[in-house]
Specification:
This protein has 453 residues and is an alpha/beta fold. The chain folds into 2 domains: 111-299, Alanine racemase (TIM Barrel); 305-447, Lyase, Ornithine Decarboxylase, Chain A, domain 1. 28% of the residues lie in helices and 23% in strands. It has helices at 29-39, 48-60, 81-88, 99-107, 124-132, 143-156, 197-205, 227-246, 272-277, 280-290, 301-304, 337-340, 441-447, and strands spanning 10-15, 20-24, 43-47, 69-74, 93-96, 115-118, 137-140, 161-165, 174-177, 211-216, 220-223, 254-256, 294-299, 308-320, 323-328, 347-350, 369-372, 381-382, 398-402, 423-426, 432-436. Strands 3, 14, 15, 16, 17, 18, 19, 20 and 21 form a 9-stranded mixed β-sheet that branches. An 8-stranded parallel barrel has the order 4-5-6-7-8-10-12-13, surrounded by 4 helices. Strand 7, helix 6 and strand 8 (161-165) form a beta-alpha-beta unit. Helix 5 packs across helix 6 (143-156) and helix 8 packs parallel to helix 10. It starts with 9 loop residues before the first strand and ends in a 6-residue tail after the last helix.
Length: 453
């Protein structure tokens, strides 16, 4: 990983019980006004320094782990090429779940040895393409998936390093849980059917076309109670000891602990270091008991969320019963988590008449201000964060939505014939660069078949 990068223009805005949260104001109000005059709104802004900073922060949080370690970026969180190129500079690994993501990585010239492939469908032809593209670290999540990987390995004459995605079936307190009994992801440690980690391990170890590499799990997103990790490591320790009774030479090379590192939106959160301290002893005990393994810390949301701002213009307002409704030119079509998960993104007004400061001055309670989008849909209302400041809201001003770098960009959809906004990146050198053009109505018309006779 590269050296730490300093995030510019960070100002204190909210104190929590576990950490002092700061809004990442990496762009000045005067710069915002220059950019919107050039590219219009809505518009995403991305800060490259923040991407590097977060990658380093996450890696350093696990400095007390005794073995080797690396960060894996879950490409699904945001696959725009400029972000992939930025993370290439940090030398991190990329976690893929689809052939489309693989296409993006190949076009960005990312080396195949820096890729982990974790499929949900696990089809044979999918695995054939993965192996032919030089990817050799593959995660299987079912017995059928494993047999498809065997067939693909035989066809391509490539022997992949194979991890098993386990479902530890532990209790997880998180906004999105990925581990629970009879869950979609992975297989349980034990079970009566062939879809159990114990039976799949034996097949992999005894198969001439696969190399067993280790285990992968993902417990959920926005985890703040970390007992689920400790419980998983305890269950994994017991499971490995059980396997060794049948396979004395059994060895683990890799354990991928998935994501879950929380990002601030509204509720207080711990830092990655505070998170890791809860279970690093358990990780080291696992290494002491069964041999040192490479630790992979996977993340999508944490690595990119705080790197991006959505800028939107206030286009209309109305006020009654001491409530103010602020209507902006964005909508949930470009910030879908606000509707799906009621995500409370921090928001702040940029005054179009004052380019130097963010201002606070209002006679209305923050609870009486509501931000609504441009879509004709009841759910197109943006929840407010405790860090939101909309005091200066008026027609012609702009609203910055913070921490929108994860999923919002890739969830874009053309509801109401809406087009994709442009994306501008503030590079590590301090320059502003257009990294994705906004689409036009003509682009959308052709995408939807308008040019087909």
């Amino acid at each position: 990983m590269g050296e730490n990068f300093q995030i510019q223009l960070i100002e204190k805005s909210l104190k929590t019980t576990t950490n002092t949260y700061t809004l990442n104001r990496f762009v000045k109000p005067s710069q915002i006004l220059d950019l919107v005059s050039q590219y219009g709104t809505p518009m995403y802004l991305i800060d490259e320094n923040t991407l590097h900073f977060k990658a380093n922060e996450l890696l350093n949080a696990y400095e007390k782990y005794k073995g080797s370690k690396r960060i894996a970026y879950s490409v699904k969180a945001n696959f725009i090429p400029s972000i992939l190129h930025s993370f290439m500079k940090d030398g991190i690994t990329f976690d893929l779940t689809s052939l489309g993501e693989l296409y993006f990585l190949k076009k960005c010239n990312i080396e195949s040895e820096n890729v982990i492939y974790t499929s949900i469908t696990e089809e044979e032809e999918e695995y054939v393409q993965v192996l032919r593209n030089g990817i050799t670290k593959v995660v299987v999540s079912s017995f059928n998936g494993m047999t498809n990987l065997v067939k693909a390995a035989e066809k391509t004459n490539v022997k992949p390093q194979t991890l098993i995605r386990i479902n530890p079936e532990v209790s997880v307190k998180a906004e999105i849980r990925a581990s629970y009994k009879n869950g979609k992801f992975g297989v349980p440690f034990n079970g009566e059917t062939i879809d159990s980690a114990f039976k799949i391990v034996k097949h992999i170890v005894n198969n001439e076309f696969l190399n067993f590499d280790g285990f992968h799990f993902h417990l959920g997103s926005q985890i703040t109670n970390f007992s689920c990790y400790s419980n998983t490591f305890s269950k994994l320790n017991t499971f490995i000891s059980k396997i060794k009774k049948d396979l004395p030479s059994f060895k683990i090379n890799t354990i991928d602990i998935g994501g879950g590192t929380p990002v601030f939106y509204n509720q207080p959160i711990p830092t990655p270091k505070q998170m890791a301290e809860n279970y690093i002893t358990k990780l080291n005990q696992l290494a002491d008991n069964h041999g040192k393994f490479e630790l992979i810390i996977e993340s999508g949301r944490f690595l990119v969320a705080e790197s991006a701002i959505l800028l939107s213009r206030i286009v209309n307002m109305k006020e009654y019963n001491r409530h103010k409704i602020v209507i902006v030119d964005a909508g949930y079509h470009i910030l879908l988590d606000s509707a799906l998960m009621k995500q409370e993104y921090p928001q702040e007004v940029v005054d179009s008449n004052n380019t130097n400061i963010y201002r606070r001055n209002s006679s209305l309670s923050p609870k009486n201000i509501h931000v609504a989008g441009r879509l004709c849909d009841t759910y197109d209302v943006f929840p407010l964060s405790e860090a939101s400041n909309l005091d200066r809201a008026r027609i012609g001003n702009y609203i910055s939505f913070y921490n929108v770098g994860a999923y919002s960009v890739v969830f874009n959809m053309p509801f109401h014939c809406q087009t994709k906004p442009p994306i501008v990146m503030k590079t590590s050198s301090g320059d502003f660069k257009l990294v994705r053009k906004g689409t036009t109505y003509q682009n959308l018309f052709e995408e939807e078949g308008g040019s087909i006779p």
